[in-house]
Structures are given as structure tokens and as C-alpha cells.
Amino acid sequence: MSAIFKANNAIVGKFKHPFSFELPIKSKTAVYGPYRSHLIDIISGRIMDPQKRITYPSFEKSLWPMQAVDVIRFGEGNSSSSKAPFIGARYESFRDEFDYTLEEVMQAARPKSFTDSQFKQIVDSFNLNQLMDRWSVGLSNGQSRRAQIAMALMKKPKLLIIDEPFLGLDKENTTLLSDVLETIQIPLIIGLRIGEDAPHWVNHYLFADKDGVVFDDEALKMIDSHKCEISRFRQDKLKVQHRMDIRDKNPVARPSIEFRGLQVKFADSDTYIFKNLEFKIADGERVRIQGPNGSGKSTLFALITADHPKSWSEKVVLFGEPRVVGKHSYFGINENIGVSSPEIHAIFPKRLNIFQAISTGFASSLFPIKKTSLSSHQIDQMKSICDDLGLDLNDPTPFRDLSMPDQKMILFARAIVKSPRILILDEAFSTVPIAQMQLAFAVLEKYQGTVLIVAHLDDEAPPYNRSINLHELNEPNTK
User: Fold this and answer.
1) Average pLDDT over residues 31-51
2) DSSP per residue, 336-364
3) What φ, ψ does residue 178 adopt, rounded to 5°?
4) Higher pLDDT, 416 or 180
5) Among the residues of 100-216, which ranges form H helices?
């Protein structure tokens, strides 16, 4: 059978040892390991092989790999929903002239050779019909994910690579997307994190780390060995959870966050995000926020941080004070809040070094503070958090050139460095290896404030007191 990709004793990029494998035309491959992203860059032709020991037997000779391979990365803040100009923008109360419906976006991306029947078929297969007249930036994570993959397939690539396709999706959307990917007729590669089970339709495996690349049986052995590490990590989390349960047997009665029957809906629509948002979170409590995609997790955080128009309401109460325009200011509110989220990651200034990046946590903005303007106490706080997280505060490397896990750890450090009274961790540890997560969880165990957590995988959720399921508080929105 002809291969879509073939490596023959190749030594490329960061890999110091030769590797060999080939992917058949009908392959559906899962890639794991800390060098997963680097291997994807090699397979897609973004990192070239000067020795020509990497070939694409089924490609026309006139095609460059980058012309024939489409890569979508969801683990790096690349989803359309994360590109909103601020955390609550997808629920803004007005539309600008440059805002488009999903129908307009997909028609603009549609190649001329793509017929009406083909367009209808792909819209149907990705369950996008009822979303076509929706404002594209207002789509939930799962909805925008399906739309992006559909638009990629309209280009008819020879090979489709999707890194972390299920990141941030609830079970229903994960199943729906998996079922669609199973039907794709072209070769498919998906990048997954250790601990994330591959869909049943995967028929090949790759594992990439500093020692090289292994294929199928050897790859499965490496994946299994890392699962043992995950098991030990889970046991350590249970010990932390036990200590926390003992400490928090008598939680503080005073709520730090309270919603008193708030209503929020999409502009120019009868679709409610929250019909009657009403609950309390005690000061110092740690709560995991759950619910399907589109249930309002991002909106909830935007209400707390005053990024949403509806957040300026006396029905939003922080530390016993109803929010009042004129009495409270945006920056005053956010002096008490630290946030790490995909939205912040997407727009974070990539030129900043580690010191500059963490210093923005004191400003409640994305602008760094000069070292001379920081107090000795603030600098000591930055040094302490970097020591605890294994970061080098004096490393001059720009944010853009750091690994994804290091970027996530820096954003966590930025969120917690000022010891805020409320800490929001929205997918803060996705893509972060276990060793680094353990360091972050140890920091969180000492933290005294209120923590709100969203995590796709249970392993990436720090220990918490209870969970709030938004789906149970509201009627679910259309998926």
C-alpha cells in the first residue's frame, strides 16, 4: 500500500537520533509525547529535511508538503473563540461592521471548485446547520472547533493534522467531533496529551521525546510507561485533597462571589446564556466550574472580571459589595483578581521576557512594569514564585520562543504573583507535563484565596472543594 509519509533513518530538527516509520494512505494516527508539536512540524513540512530522508510517496512531485498538508492547532490559543478582543467579547451587546456570521465566514473560505452540494454535505456532517446565521465570534468552543475543521476539509488537503482536537470539549462535543473525524476519507493525524485516550478508530501511534521517535508497538509501550507516572501523580493529588478537606471542614461563611438572579442573553436573540444565575462561593473556597460547551463558563468569568456588559449590575456581588457603576471601577475590581485563560494566552504580548511577562500581573493589564517601578516586596514575590515553579526570572528569552508548557506556567505565575483574593484558572494547565503541574499545585496548596477552575481533563484540575455545573443551573444552549 502506498504511504502518505515516509521517514528512513531521518535526523531532523531537535531529534538527535535517526527514526524510521511510514504512514499508510488510510492511516489515522495519534501522536503523543513532549516533542509531539515538533514532530508535527516535521511531518507537515514546516521543518525541512535537507538530507531528503523524508518523503511523501503519494504526493504529486509539483506539490510542496506545506501546500498539501493542513495543520490545525487547538492547544496554542488558535481557536476562533479565543481570538476575541477581550474575554467577554463573544457576548457583546453590539455588532461591528466587520463581524460576520458563520455562513459568511465559511462561504469566504470556500474554494471555487467546492460545489453547493459538497458545501451542504460538509455543513450537515459537522452539524453546523442551525449555527450558520450566528455571529462567528459568538460560537462556543465546540461549535467553532467543528467549523474550523470543516473549513480545513473544504481545501481538500492530502493530509490533515489536528493537534489536541478535543481540548476543552465536553463529552457530548467530544463524541460528536470524534464521530465526524472517523468518517474523514483522507489520512488524519491527531496530537493527544499523555493520559488522553485515543479514539477507537486510531490505527497507528507515534511517540516523540528528546530521545527520538518510535512507532506503533514501541510507541504504545512509551505511552503505557507514562501512564504509570500519571497514576502516581493522581495518588499525590488525593493526598493533597485529603489535607485540604481537613483544613476546610468549616469554610468561611462570608461569600467572596455571589450572583443574585442575574439574566444574560445574546444580543438580538431570545437565547439565554443565564436565565437566573444564582449561587454563592465562600471566601477561600475552591470550585470547579463545569458544563457543556456553550453553557456560559467564559461568560461567568467575564461577569466576575467586569469584562461583560451585564457584569455592571447589583446582582453581581464580590466580597459582600453589590457592583455599582461609579462606586467600582474596572481596574479596582481586577486588583483583587488573577486570571490565566486561553483568551489571555491568545493576545498576550509575545515579545516580553519572563520578568516582563510576570510583572504584568501587578498591573491588571498586558503592559509590563519597569523594574524600577516595582517595590522590593513585589520583586521578592516574583523571585519566590519563579523559584517555586522552576522558572528563571532573569531568562531573556521572549515569550514566543518558550515552550507551550513554560508559557502556561508563566501565565499562572502572572495570575497568582500578587496574591489576589480570587484566582481564575481556565484551562491553565492544559499541555503542561506532570512534573510542572506538581510544582504549580504545591503553590496552590499554600494559596489562601478563592479559586475557580475549568479543566478539560481531571488530571489538569487542581484539588477543589466542590463543583458547580452550569448546565444544571440553566437551560442548555444549542451545541
Assistant:
1) 91
2) TEEEE-HHHHHHS-TT--HHHHHHGGGTT
3) -60, -40
4) 416
5) 102-109, 116-125, 141-154, 171-183
